[in-house]
Amino acid sequence: MRLKTILNFGLKFKCFCIGKSEFDKKKESIIVEIKPRANSKPLYSVCGTPSPGYDTLSERLFEFVPLWGFRVFFRYSMRRVSCPKCKRVVVEMVPWSNGKNHFCNHYAAFLASWAKELSLKSVAEHFHTSWQTVCSAVEWVVDYGLTNRTIDMVSALGVDEIAWHKGHNYLTLVYQIDSRARRLLWIGEQRTKATMESFFKDMATLKPGFSAQIKVICSDMWKPYLKVIAKHLPKAINVLDRFHIMQKFGKALDKVRAEEVKRLRKEKLQPILAKSRWCFLKRKENLTEKQSFKLKELLKMNLRTVKAYLLREQFQKL
Q1: DSSP state of 239
Q2: Looking at residues 97-104, what average pLDDT do you find?
Q3: Is 241 helix (H, G, I), strand (E, B) or coil?
Q4: Of 64, 148, 141, whose CA–CA distance to 109 is shortest?
Q5: C-alpha span between 229 and 200 (Å, rounded)
Q6: At how many degrees (to 10) do helices 131-148 and 105-115 cross?
Q7: Where would you tag: which of 94, 200, 258, 308 has the fewest CB atoms within 10 A of its CB?
Q8: For the whole model, what pTM was predicted?
Q9: Quick one: which H or E segment has residue 237?
Q10: Quick count: other Cβ atoms within 10 Å of Cβ 51?
């Protein structure tokens, strides 16, 4: 199967056809010629209207996805178009590039997908291109996603934060977590009430009535988040993060255990809960043989610490 056949099958550029290809030994690259179809009018890049050609520019190379370790370039002479509606002369619209970049849209998506796994420098070195090209490709993909994103079907949200710099510097992340789609919707600096307010403001700008379509939102127990969520999503179910709930359970259990130890010593009873902290806080599979035996003995007693432990265990099974 020829390279031309493969490209025609995979790309299917309307009003354009794949021409001959040649191998450049000096640059170790494959050059593929692209030609406009006969009697086809170029598209005006501003409004997309088929318009008469004005003139033709010199040949340009657009970098495509590499094949067999060799760089691949499309060679094409861009046409300038005169639009009767806009009354301007601009470069035509082509399906493989936006005209400004020296790489194809397919190549940008290819580099951006690798940039999710590796650093920009590593991607550039691996595919024999520059760091600037990889960075531009990622920016193009992000801009394309932001321009073409839709939030009509979003009904479930997830809110979380990540530390992104030394010190207490955080980013607030909001995800779509519907069964049909899971994706990052929005990023904001810090984790304050103002940050969450900005999210709902931006979403309302994209789609009026966005808050009304949200049925479920999952978040941790950070109070600034909870206050804003209660304000904008009063009818939505707010599912709290299981990890943080268990963390609160652990702190409460340790507090009850410490109080019980003080009470037993004050009443001059045997301090059976002394040195038993990790018996209650550790996972069962991580307990030593001695800790496991002591926990079994303590669970036989009617103590507040034991009741708190059993309550936590019951919640964990839900």
Answers
A1: E
A2: 83
A3: coil
A4: 141
A5: 9
A6: 100
A7: 258
A8: 0.63
A9: strand 237-240
A10: 22
Alpha carbon 12 to chain centroid distance? 29
Going by C-beta distance under 8 Å and a sequence separation of 6 or more, which residues neighbour residue 65?
72, 104, 106, 107, 110
The predicted-structure confidence for 160-184, as pLDDT tens digits, reads as follows 999 988 888 999 999 999 887 888 8
Per DSSP, helices labelled H in 95-192 are: 105-115, 120-126, 131-148
Please give the structure tokens belonging to residue 6: 């493969």
* Token digits of residue 12: 């299917």
Q: Is 34 in contact with 75 (CB distance < 8 Å)?
A: yes
Render pLDDT for 295-317 as a digit per residue (tens, 0 to 9). Answer: 888 888 888 888 888 888 887 77
Q: Delimit the domains of the chain by residue range.
A: 1-100, 102-148, 156-240, 243-316
Asked if residue 20 lies in contact with residue 11, where contact means CB atoms within 8 angstroms, the answer is: no
Listed residue (245, 201, 249) closest to 222, CA to CA: 245
**CB of 20 closer than 8 Å to CB of 4:** yes
Main-chain dihedrals φ then ψ at residue 220, nearest 5 degrees: -90, -165
* Alpha-carbon separation of residue 309 from 194, 255, 299, 303 (angstroms): 38, 12, 9, 10
| Residue 129, token pair as written in the block | 């291109």
Report whether CATH 3.30.420.10 matches the domain 156-240.
yes
Q: How many residues does the chain have?
A: 318
Q: Are 17 and 57 in contact (CB under 8 A)?
A: no
